[in-house]
Design a protein that fits this description.
It is a single chain. With 171 residues, the protein is mainly β. Helix content is 0%, strand content 59%. It has no helices and 18 strands.
Length: 171
């Protein structure tokens, strides 16, 4: 699954179920600059990250409009290696769900430099557990949300056992 991808000046349109726009699998890096994207399928999030991945989105506008589609969806818990998603002068939105959903994830979300995360249900960030149906193991979420000179609006909800730390900076 490991790999590196650089995407510059692109338009992305996805329409099927789970047809996410930008995805970084475990141990992967994705840098996107000047990307305009829309996903309309069920569970088709704008951004999806897994354990120990890094996604940097700059000067971009990504929206998810399908049912059960989040702006940013992160999954996979690795205690030693966070998934990192960084927005720089970008807008990521969901028309129907959470702006950010972490399921059994260890994640750092950075929202910087005039970036915005929008939700369609009033929940900016939800951190919840994930049960692996193959092993029966439950992983809680641990999320660090850092915002600097950006716009965030909505509830922050952490289910039992999950942890959310929020760091805000005006400049």
């Amino acid at each position: 699954h490991a790999g590196i991808m650089n995407l510059d000046t692109a338009e992305i349109t996805t329409t099927g179920a789970q047809s996410n726009q930008l995805v970084a699998m475990k141990d992967s890096t994705l840098d996107a600059n000047k990307v305009k994207g829309i996903s309309t399928g069920n569970s088709a999030s704008a951004v999806r990250s897994y354990a120990n991945s890094q996604i940097t989105i700059s000067n971009s506008v990504l929206s998810a409009t399908g049912a059960l589609a989040n702006g940013i969806y992160t999954q996979g818990f690795d205690a030693d290696h966070q998934a990192i998603v960084t927005l720089d002068n970008s807008l990521v939105s969901s028309a129907t769900r959470e702006g950010i959903l972490a399921e059994g994830a260890n994640t750092q979300i950075n929202v910087n430099n005039n970036s915005t995360v929008q939700s369609g249900n009033g929940v900016l960030l939800r951190a919840r557990s994930f049960i692996d149906t193959n092993t029966g193991v439950t992983a809680q979420s641990q999320v660090n949300l850092s915002a600097s000179n950006s716009h965030l609006e909505g509830e922050i909800i952490a289910d039992t056992g999950s942890v959310v730390d929020v760091y805000l900076n005006s400049g």
